[in-house]
Design a protein that fits this description.
mainly alpha, about 110 residues, about 10% strand, Phenylalanyl-tRNA Synthetase, Chain B, domain 1, two-stranded antiparallel ribbon
Length: about 110
């Protein structure tokens, strides 16, 4: 299940708005119902539960992609090491190193 923050960000983007921590707060009463919007001060209507739910699939996709990007960022060699690889071994050898990480963490399932 996708994070409420992700769903709200997609809702805002669909309505030509950007995320602003000062315009929204969440609350979770630890009652098993999960987090909900506690305050909303955007100049568009607060999304209904149905509208939020409609972003489930897109949010799952966005979160999966972000996980891949985070994993890649951790796995790539430092920029200094990458430049060193290019200098000593050439661009084709550097591409092999980068491709190994891209293959390890593909953006899209094949």
């Amino acid at each position: 299940m996708a994070n409420l923050n992700t769903k709200i960000k997609l809702y805002l983007e669909a309505n030509s708005k950007t995320w602003d921590n000062e315009k929204i707060t969440f609350q979770d009463n630890s009652d098993g119902n999960g987090a909900f919007i506690a305050s909303w001060s955007y100049d568009i209507a607060q999304p209904t539960a149905e509208q939020i739910a409609s972003y489930e699939t897109a949010s799952n996709t966005a979160e999966a992609l972000q996980t891949v990007l985070n994993n890649r960022a951790k796995d790539y060699p430092s920029i200094a090491d990458q430049l060193d690889k290019i200098y000593h071994s050439g661009i084709d050898e550097w591409k092999k190193v980068i491709k190994a990480t891209k293959d390890k963490y593909p953006k899209w399932a094949k």
